[in-house]
Amino acid sequence: MPRESEPFQPSALAAALKEAVIAAAVAFGLFGLMVGIKTDQGPTSALVFTTRFDIVGILVAIAFVGRFIFALLHGRARAPFGGVVSRHLGTAAARSAPYAATAFLIFALIVPIVFYSNRYWLDLAILIVTYAMLGFGLNIVVGLAGLLDLGYVAFYAVGAYSYALLAQHFGWSFWICLPMAGILAAFAGILLGFPVLRLRGDYLAIVTLGFGEIIRLILLNWQNLTGGPNGISGVPRPSFFGLPFNSSEHGFAATFGLSYSATHRTVFLYYVILALALLTNWVTLRLRRLPIGRAWEALREDEIACRALGINTTTTKLTAFAIGAMFGGFAGAFFATRQGFISPESFTFSESAFVLAIVVLGGMGSQLGVALAATVMLCAFELLREFDQYRMLVFGAAMVAIMIYRPRGLVSARTPSVFLRGRKDIPPELVAEARTESAA
């Protein structure tokens, strides 16, 4: 590695240019035919070729510039300033980490104020917080306990249908049905946990994937209870301490002397899901410091060593599945009351994969990373919506890049569960005794 005082060598620039040219050539070979030529069916059913080499040129230019910058900063023949830039970026990130969570929370609290007149961004914010809450719940199972769960959407569905059925058939309010939905989802998590107590790795992933599909098929075929493919419509909406969000004289707006606006309900729903997400985050952080949380982390690191320490792995796994499923049930109940309509199409495997991607990309075991990954991924989806068919291509490439250059996630470091709060000095006689034993 060249030192900071060394002068810039032209060989580093030449090597970076060479790598950039090779990357551009490879990009042209890949995208020249895949993107540059498009085939459509003409009016006579014959294939019509359409060239799009302008898009190919943009992709090749992106590959050239990206590889050139990467070669200067991190390549084998990197320029002297590459290490300086990387070091300064790492130092800045480490210093700003303690303030990131506070800034993130403050921004989340003022989102309805900033975007009050923009319904689109308010709905997007609700979606981000919902997926962040799902990520917090799955992070208990995957990030802390190390149990790969590909069927987490099943608990999401159980919570949604539990709320919809209880609210419609018994007339219970949202605040009564919410804990019931969480309890029923936790029960579903225990049912999943018992058959997979001796499974791990890929086998566990396959079983949880099958459990998610079983729940979806039950919802699809049990038409007398769930409505089948037609779903359940007219799910009751929550109220503000009994005040409905409508234009009547007993509504929320009239009671507080405000002009009626449909945005009032949206803002209320946002703060409801934000409170649930913060509660999930707080409970998770507290559980990590308790013996059960340390047992989850021990199970994640080595199950055999965990058993050797006398930890009951059966109880540890079941509690991880149950608590993670409970938070998924809370999120499902909120989803049902926000949408007002639910169907099995909302609980497919792609939802489980998306939530798992949030946990992995954010950094397994990191709460801040999960929230950051949910924000980045959903905002990226919306910003790339104009690209239509290229959206998934760009999004997939970005995920691959994150996994290559940040294999431990966006936030790889996290606070230890247990640490010494005060510095303890070792007596000199113990140090001398240790030196004597090592010398002998």
Keywords:
2 domains, disordered N terminus, 3% strand, single chain, two-stranded antiparallel ribbon, two-stranded antiparallel sheet, ABC transporter involved in vitamin B12 uptake, BtuC, mainly alpha, 440 residues
Structure description:
The chain is mainly alpha-helical and 440 residues long. It folds into 2 domains: 10-88, no CATH class; 115-405, ABC transporter involved in vitamin B12 uptake, BtuC (Orthogonal Bundle). 69% of the residues lie in helices and 3% in strands. It contains 17 helices and 4 strands. It has helices spanning 10-34, 53-74, 80-114, 119-144, 153-170, 174-193, 202-221, 223-226, 252-255, 263-289, 291-301, 303-308, 313-339, 349-362, 367-383, 391-405, 428-439; strands at 37-41, 47-51, 232-233, 341-342. The strands form 2 sheets. Strands 1-2 form a two-stranded antiparallel ribbon. A two-stranded antiparallel ribbon has the order 3-4. Strand 1 (37-41) and strand 2 (47-51) form a beta hairpin. It is globular. 34% of the residues are buried.
Question: What is the structure about, briefly put?
Answer:
The protein is mostly helical. Helix content is 69%, strand content 3%.
Q: What is the count of DSSP helices, taking H or I runs of 4+ residues? A: 17
Q: What name is given to the CATH topology of the largest domain?
A: ABC transporter involved in vitamin B12 uptake, BtuC
Low-confidence stretches: 1-6, 79-86
What would CATH call the class of the largest domain?
Mainly Alpha
Could you give the distance between the termini?
41 Å
